[in-house]
Automatic annotation (TrEMBL):
One of its GO terms (cellular component) is cytosol. Acts on leucine, isoleucine and valine. Pathway: Amino-acid biosynthesis; L-leucine biosynthesis; L-leucine from 3-methyl-2-oxobutanoate: step 4/4; Amino-acid biosynthesis; L-isoleucine biosynthesis; L-isoleucine from 2-oxobutanoate: step 4/4; Amino-acid biosynthesis; L-valine biosynthesis; L-valine from pyruvate: step 4/4. This is Probable branched-chain-amino-acid aminotransferase. Keywords: Amino-acid biosynthesis, Aminotransferase, Branched-chain amino acid biosynthesis, Pyridoxal phosphate, Transferase. It catalyses: L-leucine + 2-oxoglutarate = 4-methyl-2-oxopentanoate + L-glutamate; L-valine + 2-oxoglutarate = 3-methyl-2-oxobutanoate + L-glutamate; L-isoleucine + 2-oxoglutarate = (S)-3-methyl-2-oxopentanoate + L-glutamate. Belongs to the class-IV pyridoxal-phosphate-dependent aminotransferase family. The keyword Amino-acid biosynthesis applies.
Length: 285
């Protein structure tokens, strides 16, 4: 496949980044994942706005290519003939001349910008959406600025492995007794006509899919409560689900071995997935 690195479109085998890149040495990088449906970008503006926020929060300079990111995304979709899939975008503080905790002078060290596509035919018609997924709960031991989308993904990655080992698909993280979010998604339950999900703060990533889904839920006359909740409360719910750019709305049918509702995807989560996919396709660019 063809990838993008600092202004160049190259075969992936020829793309190179310095070993002194701060993301390689210190996870000093931020990223975004945008999904592609029908060759078009889903929620692109939201992802770019969040990227800008992540850069600001870390005093990371905006790359020169910032205003060209839409064109770069579109060009990669075209070159790699992506109909359904994802585009990964990473911006790092760049390659300093040596390993040093102090940030390099932004006049001298420019950000590294990397983009690549992931071809995922059948992404929207995912079999997992029909069966639902199983999650376990684990302690949330990540740092305190989870609202910044950094490349520090070791713990979420370990969480996924713990889930796999337990025969499950993902893990919901718990801090001080309350669910924060999934390893790479936001977490919800539904009781009656009410959707409950943790409120936005520095404790969780402000999901772009979350914002859209909560808006569609309110438009569909569902009640939305943004507050803390426990694993036990979610286990006693009628339905549960997660959201992310790559899974859209994905039903959760089991939490720590306890079936949610009938143990099959709920009708409300399925409906929200349908609305999200329909509306996102219409608004895709
Ligand atoms: N929380 C975490 C920790 C994530 O990694 C992600 C996906 N990157 C999300 C939530 C969902 O965010 P989005 O809907 O913007 O993909």
């Amino acid at each position: 496949r063809t990838v993008y690195v600092n202004g160049d479109y190259l075969p992936e085998t020829e793309a190179k980044v310095s070993i002194f890149d701060r993301a390689f040495l210190m996870a000093d990088g931020v990223y975004e994942v945008t999904s592609v449906l029908g060759g078009k970008l889903i929620d692109f503006d939201g992802h770019i706005k969040r990227l800008e926020r992540s850069l600001n929060e870390l005093d990371m300079p905006k790359p020169e290519a910032f205003d060209d990111l839409l064109d770069i995304h579109r060009k990669l979709v075209e070159i790699n003939e992506i109909d359904e899939g994802m585009i990964y975008l990473q911006v790092t503080r760049g390659a300093a001349s040596d390993r040093d905790f102090v940030f390099p002078d932004p006049e001298e060290v420019k950000p590294t910008v990397v983009l690549f596509t992931q071809n995922k035919p059948g992404l929207a018609d995912s079999p997992a959406a029909k069966t639902g997924i199983k999650v376990i709960s684990i302690e949330d031991v990540r740092w305190g600025r989870r609202d910044i989308k950094t490349t520090q993904l070791l713990y979420p990655s370990m969480g996924k492995m713990m889930a796999k080992k337990a025969g499950c698909d993902d893990a919901w993280m718990v801090e001080d007794g309350f669910v924060t979010e999934g390893t790479s998604n936001n977490a919800y339950f539904i009781k009656g006509n009410k959707i409950v999900t943790r409120a936005l703060s520095t404790d969780i990533l402000h999901g772009i899919t979350r914002a859209a889904v909560l808006r569609f839920a309110r438009e569909a006359q569902m009640e939305v409560e943004e507050r803390n909740f426990t694993i036990e409360e979610a286990q006693g719910a009628d339905e549960a689900f997660i959201t992310s750019a790559s899974t859209f709305v994905m039903p959760v049918v089991e939490i720590d071995g306890k079936a949610i509702g009938e143990g099959v995807p709920g009708t409300r989560a399925a409906r929200l997935r349908e609305i999200y996919l329909d509306e996102s396709r219409k608004a895709a660019i």
